[in-house]
Amino acid sequence: MNLLITGGAGFIGSNLIHHVLGDPQVDKLVNLDCLTYAGRLENLPAVERNPKYTFERVDLRDKAATRRVVEQHAISHVMHLAAESHVDRSISGPGDFITTNILGTFNLLEACRDFWNGNLVGKRFHHVSTDEVYGSLGATGLFTEATSYAPNSPYSASKASSDFLVRAYHHTYGLPTVITNCSNNYGPFQFPEKLIPVVIQSVLARRPVPVYGDGMNVRDWLYVQDHAEALWTVLQRGREGETYNIGGHNEWANLRIVELICDLIDELSPQSGGDSRKLINFVKDRPGHDRRYAIDASKIQRELGWMPAHRFEQGIRETVCWYLENQGWVGAVLAKR
User: Fold this and answer.
1) Strand extents, DSSP E, 195-267
2) Are 94 and 72 in contact (CB under 8 A)?
3) N or C: which end of the chain has fewer CB within 10 A?
4) Under-50 pLDDT residues of the chain
5) Model pLDDT, residue 85
6) Active-site positions?
7) CA distance 74 to 27
8) In this structure, is residue 81 part of a structural domain?
């Protein structure tokens, strides 16, 4: 297996590389990343010394460079995670989301289609997407693989578009694709702009902790190491042309998460000041803020035997501990923002 992981210096990608690099099935692992603000080689300590590992600093929007990587490394398997992914940034500046998430996916599909040239035995293109393509749920119900797409932000619209491209390449050209749509990830190496690391860093700095609206927007939270295991399972055993939803079975309102993190830091780092809930600051809701996401992950459990190993209370404690112990990493990535 000559495996290409795009976005491997990012949050989920770096955790995935740590998870799969030691697998004996992997002969070569190529990490393609253009190292935007959220892509950090600091996320991959010691990996560069592994003889199986190669890093390519390439932007998927560069068609020729993308094609060179696929051909030069004789790529047989792709796990495509590279994407602009922050909803707030997509609202203030959607252009990069359109070009990276749609055009970049197109360039990668074309490079693989041309290089594989109909010789598809033993090949696989795994496109990693998000539950945000489904839109917003009411108080009940779950997203299934049959749920209609209804994206509500430029980010989710760009991911929906890339999903449809991958699906089209399977049905039109026979490309051996699989798609996964995951719920919100959390865990080590997440760039400090997403909810959980923002809250941790704000509490440690004794700054106001921003909470959008009334804080009752609900997400299904997935520990990143569980996600990495699910992605690897789907790459190996998922049925071609199929979509698999990956969720943590952990629905939490944003405000409840913020309160839990405040309490954990008060417990684990009492020198930080204590009584951290007083830092919570409700701010104006962001435009188009989906009320609730929740994943029905029964298909991947039924067909492939995967289930998340972490309850949220366990995973969030491990995550808070990691950030407390890795403040040097936080400072380094924020300094290069």
Assistant:
1) 209-212, 218-223, 243-246, 251-253
2) no
3) C
4) none
5) 82
6) 131-132, 155
7) 11
8) yes
